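Exam revision sheet. Question 4 asks you to relate a sequence to its structure. Input first:
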Amino acid sequence: MSGGGQLSTIIDFQSTKVVDDATLELVLLTPYAILDSLLAEYTVGIIPGGEFDPANPIGTGAFAYKSFEPGKTSTFTKYADYWGDAAFVDELQIQDFADDNAKVNALQAGQIQTLDNLPYNLVDTIKSSGGGVLIADAGAWVPFTMRVDTAPFNDVKVRQAMRLIVDRQAMIDQTLSGYGSLGNDLYAPFDVNYASDLPQREQDIDQAKSLLASAGQDGLQVELFTGDGIGSVAVPAANLFAEQAKAAGVEVKVTKKTEFYDDDYLSYPFAQDFWNTRNYIPQAVVGTFPPDLGGTYNETHWDNQQHRDLVNQAATELDEAKRKDLLHQAQQIEYDEGGLIIWGFRQQVDGYGANVQGLEPSKYLPLGNYKFNKVSI
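Answer key, structure tokens:
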């Protein structure tokens, strides 16, 4: 038995054992008070032990693997012995498309019945053609990332100024067509410990100018790296930020990369990224801890011992009130000093045909968390 990611630092897989057909006894390497929420994350999956055979994959879902054509189609059939509610449809096909227009056209032509990540500007097009639109408060975010160990962003005044430059509502209105909610430079909005009481940060050009002047950065020039690979929101958001920054005397050169997630990823001084939502502690570990302590995707190179100690202490705290206080202190540090500009959380918008029933919004993944066993046609 083995596991990767954060689980490998928390669970002692060598000592963990199967008690019976329905019971697994987990042994921990370190105290961890929120193991249940970590195991429930969308990033955690289970596959049979031993060598995994991609030609004959075995899972636990309502559909069984039938065939796979790379870049084209994956086909699954209804699994009669599924442990949960049986699927309504006999066969499920998942098709790949080269671009958004192709999959929207396929939906309108009746060639497919659902599509995920419907471009916001095409919502009315789908509705006018008789299709349906599924909207969920998903909590996904496309932040601007500032490396706190690299000039000019190693000066907290510059980071604060950049956060005050952005017009968050304009970002939502223009890049998400209104399908989103305000961000406050903190992630994990669905976590019960989210610091919603911190003042909502708003655009303040005069204060941004003052901070930049105090940091000796009048006439600041920066390069912002972006790319379509981050998602359809990224490039428009980058261009809009560059336009907004002019009011503060900041010149932002937007560089669109063909391959954003290449060897330069995680080394850009100023860039963007994409995250689905998760709870605060797992996100803090993977996104703000040093790489050797679990920060696999620490884009900002944040390395704050006080913040890290608070997060680690909260992870072991059984008292919910005490854990909430610890995490509020941690979020206060990120709010004051962090390298992320989280201007908003985009809603998940998907499309489906008029004959499709059973889809329900999900906070975590598109198309009702991809629970196609609940869908009927």
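Marking note for examiners. Residues 320-337 form the longest helix (18 residues).
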